Structure formats: structure tokens, C-alpha cells
Amino acid sequence: MRQLHGLFGRIIFMFLPYCAAIPAGGAASAQQVLTPGIALDIAMSNSPEIRRSRLGLEQSMELLNAARASLKSRFSLSLTPFYLRQDREFNDLFSLWFTRETRQISGRFMIEQPIKLTDGTLSFTNQFSWRDYRSGYQDQGSKTYNNNFFVSFTQPLLTYNRTKLEFRELELDLECSSLNYAVQVLVIEQRVMQSFFDAYQKKMSLDIAIEELRNQEEGCRIMKNKVEAGIEKMEELYQAEYNLSTSKSRVQNRRVELENTFDSFKQLLGLSLFEEIAVDADVSFREIDVDLPMAISHGIKHRMEIRRREIGIEEARNELIRTGARNEFRGDLNVSYGSIGTDEKFTDIYDEPVRNRELRISFEMPLWDWGEKRSRIRASEARIKSAELSKEEEHNNIIIEIRRAYRSLWNRISQIEIARQSVRNAELTYDINLERYRNGDLSSILLNDYQRQLSEARQGLIGELIGYKLDLLDLKVKSMWDFEGNRSVVPCMETDS
């Protein structure tokens, strides 16, 4: 019997689909060999989900950068190069109408500095103007230069710091976008690996079907020789030919399944459906030591779902602060100090300056809101408690998920050993019965049963080996620790400060 070489080692599959399109010019495109790492890199570059998450992360980062820039000094300049106003006005004292005309040129330069610590604003303002005023009443008129420079400070009182709160919310939004991106990366990795090994398993099923077909061809040849020699009856040859036709059909079905799987795999990776691909996988078994308590503690500490729940709690508390400020008792402090100079000559503006001062403290006192504020606060407090319960529930879910992944991995090791023994027994059983078949002591129907048993045992072993790889990946995703590489897989989500 021909053995299926390299069943548990490294297998390279190069298969030209029957329905693959040939590019213009008649030459087929070069085949791309995909390993799990290469497939994952392609998916990370082409996946629409990853690209959308990356754009969301970029948007949150730019919004935070804009908020940081808004805390720096802002310079502004406004100019009115020409202003003309002409109208008529009635003088009640003298009961007469007169015409007045105003021409003006003005400009204002301002520096504003927000203060994040207090939520106040410090401003430096300089206003300069030239004014030409003409009045028809007793032919009055004047031309003057005016310059007003003052420093002002505004400060909210008895309320929360809105600047700090908005800034913190933008930081949380950026962190949440980073977490979403990191989660999406892990989800894509899991999907790609599952699809990759599904394609690999389909290829192995095709290889096993081809090996089975070769065995059936050999059995059919043996039976044909026996019938021609008059040793066996004709119905045994018919049965052998039937078994051979069934094997050919199975090979063709496996080819079609593989082609369909490759189409779905290429779509997931974002590759052209007409591109030829090959898969290269190592499914050799190597038992990995797994520390369950460490996996649980690391998963609880670094799982992004926990941090997202914490962010949800903090956002709910921020909303409580904002709700508590509805219909609040608050005040405002405004302080201004400067000097004004006015003269008909530009050089004499500050010969007799006038000091201008302003100090204003105002309060806003709501009297009655019919319980609106109290009800909104209670609703916000309920939201906080709900978020805290969700975090506790997520904590327990993570422990359960890691335990299940560990048990599945542990059980898979036992199943692999059982599957290996099944393959050894099936191979020995088939070899023995093939010899009986050659000697005429076994029918084609029974030999076909042993052949099918051998194929199923081999497919079962391949499935268990692939399942072990996927179980390791599942445990890595759930615990954020790569036990195969003995390293943490917590993503770095640092941003520019």
C-alpha cells in the first residue's frame, strides 16, 4: 500500500483550480504561497473592518490633538478698513431734523489663553480706531484717534470644570477607539486562522481521497487479474469498479469543496478571486504547557472588555456630573483692567490716558424645577450601578471563557493521542486485509469498508491537529497570553502626549 507521506509534517499544497481564469495573453499568473503569518498580514492590510477601525482611531486621535491645541494661546486679528454711516436724526429739544455722518477705520488684536486648571480665560486685547464724525446740527464735527488696551479674566464659580471634563472625555474616546481597534485585530486573526486551517483541512481531505483512489485502483487491478485468471467471480470485479467510481466521485467533490473554500478565503483576505494561491501549514503536534491560574489573572488584567467596562463607568460618572449641573446655582467672575487714549493727533493719544476698570460677580439661582434635577440624578446613578454590574459580569465571563478554552485544549491533547492510535490501527488493519484481498480471502465490499475506515481515521487526526492549533489561538485571544511563544499579546495603545 502506498503510504501518505508527510501526514503529520509540513505540507505544501499547490493546486490549480479547474475554473481559475487565465489572464490575457494566455499565461497564468504566478501562484502565491500563503502561510498563516502571510495570510494574517494580508488581511490586516486589506480587511475593511480593520481599515474602518483604523480610521476611527485616527479620528479620535485628531480630535484629542485639536483639544490639546485649543488649550494653547489663540491669536486673532479683526479689521474694519472702511466704515461709513449716514442718517438723519430728530432733536426733541430744538424740534428739528439734522444729518449726521460717521466714517471709521478700526482694528482689534486679541490674545486669549484658556486655563485648564480653573476653566477660566485670560485675555489681552488692543482696539485701535480712527473716527471722523460730522453732524448737520450747528455744523459740529470731530476727527479722533482712539486706542484701548486692557487685560481681562473670566472665571466660572461654584460649578464643575467643563474644560477638564471635555478633555477627559476625548481621552476616553481615544482609548476606546484604540481598544476597538485592538479587539478587531484579534477578531480578524481568529477568523483568518479558522478560514486558513479550514482550507488546509479541505486540502488534506483531497489528498486522502486521492490516496484512497490509488488504493481502489490497485484493488481493482488485482481483482481484474483474478477474474481474468478465473479465480474470482465477475460480480467481485463489478463491486471493485463500483468502489473505484465512488472514489473518483469523492475526489471530484473534494476538489469542488476546496475551490469554494479558497474563494471564501480570498474574499476574507481581500485578494482577487482570480489569483492562484497555495497554502503551507505546519500542524505537527507539540504539547504546550499552560498555566491556568496565570492565564486567568493575565486575562482579567489585560482583557480589553474589562477596560471598556471601566470606561463605561467613568463616562456614566461624567454624565452624573453634567446632570448635577442642570439648573445649578453658579456664579461668574469678570475682571478687566486697562487704559484708553483719545486725541485728534495720533502721537498724542496717551498724553492724558484714562484708566478703565471692571469687576463683576454675578450669580444664577434657580428657584424651583419641579424635581427634574433630582430625577435626572437618580437616572444617572442607576446608569453607574448598571455599568458596575456589567463590569462584574464581564469579569466572571472572562474566567468562564478561559476555563472553557483550557478544558478544550486539555481534551484535545487526549483526542490527538486517541486519533493517532486509531490511524495506526486502521493502517495495520488495512494492510492485513489488503493481503487477504490479494489472496482471495476478502471481498471488495469489506476491503472498501476498511479503506473508508482508514480515510476517516486520517481525516479525524488532521482535524484534531488543526483543532489544537485553533484551541491554542482561542486561549491566546481569551487570556491575552501566547503560551506557544511564552509572551504577552497585549497591544500597545500609547498615543502622543
SSE ordering: EEHHEEEEHHEHHEEHHEE
| SSE class | alpha+beta
Main β-sheet, spatial strand arrangement:
3-4-5-6-8-9
* Corresponding CATH superfamily of the largest domain: Outer membrane efflux proteins (OEP)
The CATH class of the largest domain = Mainly Alpha
Report the helical percentage.
40-55%
How many structurally independent domains?
Answer: 2
By DSSP, the count of extended strands is 11
Which term fits the overall shape? elongated
Q: What does it look like?
A:
- The protein is α+β, with helices and mostly antiparallel strands and 497 residues long.
- The chain has two domains: 10-63 and 167-315 and 381-488, Up-down Bundle (Outer membrane efflux proteins (OEP)), CATH 1.20.1600.10; 74-115 and 120-160 and 330-365, no CATH class.
- The chain contains eight helices and eleven strands.
- It has helices at 36-46, 48-70, 162-228, 234-269, 292-302, 304-324, 372-438, 444-479; strands at residues 10-13, 32-34, 74-91, 96-115, 120-135, 140-157, 277-282, 330-343, 354-364, 481-482, 487-488.
- The strands form three sheets. The chain has a six-stranded antiparallel sheet with strand order 3-4-5-6-8-9, with no helix packed on it. It has a three-stranded mixed sheet with strand order 1-7-2. Strands 10-11 form a two-stranded antiparallel ribbon.
- A hairpin with a 4-residue loop joins strand 5 (120-135) and strand 6 (140-157).
- Helix 1 crosses helix 3 and helix 3 (162-228) runs antiparallel to helix 4.
- The longest helix is centred in the middle third of the chain and has 67 residues, at 162-228.
- It is elongated and about 145 Å long.
- The model is unreliable at 1-28 (pLDDT under 50).
